[in-house]
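Example 3.2
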Amino acid sequence: MIEHIEHLDGAVIPIGFDVPVEPLRRAAHYTGEPGCIAEARAFASHFVEQLRTEWCATAGDRVIGEVMLVVSELVTNADRHSNGPYILELEGTDSSVTVCVYDSSDALPMRFPKDPQRVGRHGLEIVHAVAAEVTAERVPVGKRVRAVLKLGA
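Structure, written as C-alpha cells:
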C-alpha cells in the first residue's frame, strides 16, 4: 500500500511504498574441471560489484577480500571432497553477503583445532575467522556449507 499526502491544491504525492525488497541472489554451477575455482572467484567479484551498485552496499577492500577468501575456501573444499559438480549460491543486501556451496558429498566438513604446525586443513578455520556465522548441513543432494559475512565500511 502506498501512503499519500494530499496538498491543498489536490495534488497527491506518494511518500512511502509497501513493497518488499528481495536480496540480490545469484548462483552458478561448476563441474570441477580445472579453472572452476578462478571462475567462482570472478563470479563472486562481479556479484559484490553488483551489490555495491544495486544495494549501495558499503564493501571495502578488506570485506571484498574476505568474500573472495570464503568463496575460494568453500569452493576448493567442494572441488576436493565431492564426487561431482557443485553449486555456488550468493545472496546479499547492504549489510551482509551469504556464501553457500552445495556439493554431492554428505560428509560434513571438520574444523580442526588451531595448530600452526599443521600443514593444510586450515580452510574451515579461516572461514570461521572471517565470517559472522558458519553452518554445514546435509541436504538431499549432499551437503550445504553456508557462511555469512557482515558488510561495513
